[in-house]
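Consider the tokenized backbone below.
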């Protein structure tokens, strides 16, 4: 005779098959979603009870683990999701957890569907990875119940949620400090979208670094897009205005690559005339640059490891709250000279 505790736990997919409805319908019915017909709710609840799965299962703390963690990403280009995935696997592997990967392609409805699918597989927790670092809306509890969720790279707007992201303030300080250590004192700054969170936090780091060294930017920072064409245009404006500068910090590597092309097109030598530094360590932009770019690496693999570790804590009943920031690293290449040796 089989012990009840040894029987496979029914999933939402089991209920969907038995009731001849979709998994998303089961999820909405069990959550008493207002958009679900009353007759459908009754059917789903009846089938769930027959199979031994009741809506209250979502509201109780788990005492068993499936050994699976869901990772949902909005990223289509592999950054930051690929290094985050690698870091998360490094942390989860020794703990006998595997990752189920789902891509929502930046579509809110598809994200909901992907989460419903992962929840139907009884994942122990969710990592939600955003391509953008701007604040995002939290996942509705009606989808996840008590299953722990950690937001990665793009933090949740709810301060009670746990979010793990890059320390852009520290990263920007690293960039300015490096240029100053290289002997550059007339440093210009080219930013991205003016009202983006990444821009605002990098500007805080820039201002802190200049203040610590008793310096000011060579020109007011310029803001535009995050692409190569904006880097070209912004550098052209600096040169057109006749502003003398010997260092240039760009808020991402695409901007830095565009600026580098403009500087070299005007006959300037990098790094002899102008030292250039980017941000993100995005290899697609760096490897094809005329001069390999020095950059600040946001440490996405470490972000993935930290996010997985705090998710494991939550799975064990010890949730974290608030925002955890991971410091970046400076990666020096040929676009900046070696720092001057310290004075004796």
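A designed sequence for it:
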């Amino acid at each position: 005779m089989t012990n009840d505790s040894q029987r496979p736990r029914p999933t939402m997919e089991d209920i969907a098959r038995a009731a001849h409805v979709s998994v998303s319908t089961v999820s909405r019915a069990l959550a008493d979603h207002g958009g679900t017909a009353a007759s459908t709710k009754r059917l789903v609840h009846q089938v769930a009870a027959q199979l031994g799965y009741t809506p209250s299962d979502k509201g109780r703390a788990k005492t068993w683990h499936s050994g699976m963690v869901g990772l949902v990403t909005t990223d289509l280009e592999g950054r930051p999701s690929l290094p985050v995935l690698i870091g998360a696997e490094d942390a989860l592997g020794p703990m006998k957890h595997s990752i189920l990967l789902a891509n929502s392609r930046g579509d809110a409805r598809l994200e909901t569907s992907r989460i419903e699918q992962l929840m139907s597989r009884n994942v122990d927790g969710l990592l939600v990875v955003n391509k953008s670092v701007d604040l995002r809306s939290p996942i509705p509890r009606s989808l996840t119940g008590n299953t722990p969720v950690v937001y990665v790279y793009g933090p949740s707007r709810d301060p009670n949620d746990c979010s793990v992201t890059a320390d852009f303030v520290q990263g920007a300080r690293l960039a300015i400090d490096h240029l100053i250590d290289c002997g550059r004192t007339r440093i210009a700054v080219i930013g991205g979208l003016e009202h983006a969170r990444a821009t605002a936090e990098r500007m805080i780091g820039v201002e802190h670094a200049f203040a610590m060294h008793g310096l000011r930017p060579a020109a007011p920072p310029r803001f535009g897009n995050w692409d190569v064409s904006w880097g070209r245009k912004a550098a052209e404006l600096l040169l057109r205005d006749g502003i003398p500068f010997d260092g240039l910090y760009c808020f991402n590597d695409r901007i830095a690559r565009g600026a580098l092309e403009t500087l070299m097109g005007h006959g300037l030598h990098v790094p002899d005339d102008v030292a250039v530094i980017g941000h993100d360590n995005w290899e697609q932009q760096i490897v094809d640059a005329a001069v390999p770019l020095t950059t600040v690496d946001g440490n996405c693999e470490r972000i993935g490891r930290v996010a997985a570790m705090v998710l494991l804590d939550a799975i064990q009943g010890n949730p974290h709250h608030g925002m955890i920031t991971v410091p970046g690293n400076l990666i020096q290449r040929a676009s900046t000279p070696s720092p001057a040796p310290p004075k004796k």
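The chain is about 40% helix and 15% strand.
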